[in-house]
Amino acid sequence: MTDRASTRGDLAQAVAAAVSGGVDWVQVRERDLEAAELLALAAGVAEAARAAAQSAGREVRVLVNRRMDVALALGADGVHLGFDAVGPHAGCSAPRP
Questions:
Q1: Residue 60 sits in a domain of what CATH number?
Q2: How far apart are CA 85 and CA 65, in angstroms?
Q3: Contacts of 2 (CB under 8 A, 6+ apart)
């Protein structure tokens, strides 16, 4: 889970190092950023994470915290929705189970 406020140096480099060390899931969680800033940050983090995983011959999954719009725009592997976030069926025309 990212936290650029407590990361020394470049966040993307820190994530790449973590992925090189064996991390296989990265959750971009930067709640104070607006959509465009979050998307730009998440894109850099995802690119660094995927490059590090590819170099190690592994895969990594990238999630975005709470922002389905950013996750979709990024092409993320998923989105983490909290208890108070939009429900998984929001905007869906399929009937709810």
A1: 3.20.20.70
A2: 10
A3: 11, 15, 26, 27, 28, 29, 30, 45
Q: What is the radius of gyration, based on Cα positions, of the chain?
A: 14
DSSP state letters, 13-50: HHHHHHHHTT--EEEE--TTS-HHHHHHHHHHHHHHHH
Residue 12 lies in a domain: yes
Domain coverage including residue 47: 4-80
Helix 11-20 vs helix 35-55: angle between axes, to the nearest 10 degrees?
30
Q: What is the pLDDT along the chain (97 residues), one digit of tens a residue?
A: 999 999 989 999 999 999 999 999 999 999 999 999 999 999 999 999 999 999 999 999 999 999 999 999 999 999 998 877 666 666 666 555 5
Q: For the chain, what is the domain count?
A: 1
3-state secondary structure of 68: helix
